[in-house]
Amino acid sequence: MITSILILLALTVPAGILYTRKSPQFGGRPSSEDLDRYSRSPQWKDGVFLNRSLTTMDVSLWSMPGLLKEFLSGRKNRQPPEPLIIERLDSDQFHDGKDKFIWYGHSTVLFRVSGKNILVDPMFGPDASPIGPLRTPRFSKSSLDLIDDLPQLDLILLTHDHYDHLDYASIQKLKNKTSEFWVALGLKRHLDKWGVPKDQIKEFDWWEESQLGALRIVFTPSRHFSGRGLFDRSKSLWGGWGIISENRKIYWSGDGGYDSHFSEIGAKYGPFDWGFMECGQYNEKWHQIHMYPEEAVLASQEALVKTAVPVHWGAFSLALHDWTDPIVRFSGEASEKKLKGCYPRLGQIVTVGKEPSEPWWEL
């Protein structure tokens, strides 16, 4: 959320507006044909996509200077004391025939499910902001190099178009590693501008499904917003994903606040073996678009998740809390509520049935 505030502040000057039109990382602008297509979505009203519940943020133009000051001079514990190491991929171990995943920090996860390699929200870049002077640096070094280790991918899934999930530099390196991008409705224009062939991109509205071999994949609702610049707020959709095979069910919550959709998703598609639940970058001012850790535990239970993996932390400081606050609060609440949690190290290969829970963040 803080990235959106920084971008808005920087782009209110004429030079910033010009920058958005010239710099490729801002993505594509919706054409009249795009807008006509979006208008056929049940989620589209009065020229924007909407959440199912009224969703507000307590952030005004007048409050932004104070927020920016607090962000730039906040607590020293918002970043780890030293760079976090991301383990390099052991290809032989990853392809041993068992379902598994690797979390690379924040919301980037590589899955091996039913023999398919699936990458979700590939943000390997060093910074979650497109504005040079307003950096939100990654906790780990040389993360883009990790893409070189990745296997050929059967599919890339994208939940929404915010910079901490859809990264220009990462997509440029990944274009030749896959021929399938399944994305939230409205993201095709960004990938198209970045050189991804149109026939490799499939857009999804909420509850729409498709098959990838034996895998059934569904785009699920979340409570959030979208946009990469001044003029495209909520001009693309946001959501989560369900990945369902004969032997495995995986839920990816996507970014968003707590709402009734978790129970609905659990009833439709659960129970889930693994649930990757947004947990991090929250604040009382934008509580309705980023849930608190305790709510992430509740959401896991309502979605009928058996083993919950908190994500959206461990890579960037995009709010004002300590960098370990999400995992400390989530793990404590999960223990109290008898929810099984999985807390892997960055880059660690996690195999089904061998989910780690050691507190590695206690540096």
Automatic annotation (TrEMBL):
<protein>
    <submittedName>
        <fullName>Uncharacterized protein</fullName>
    </submittedName>
</protein>
<dbReference type="GO" id="GO:0031123">
    <property type="term" value="P:RNA 3'-end processing"/>
</dbReference>
<dbReference type="Pfam" id="PF12706">
    <property type="entry name" value="Lactamase_B_2"/>
</dbReference>
<dbReference type="InterPro" id="IPR036866">
    <property type="entry name" value="RibonucZ/Hydroxyglut_hydro"/>
</dbReference>
<dbReference type="InterPro" id="IPR001279">
    <property type="entry name" value="Metallo-B-lactamas"/>
</dbReference>
<dbReference type="GO" id="GO:0005737">
    <property type="term" value="C:cytoplasm"/>
</dbReference>
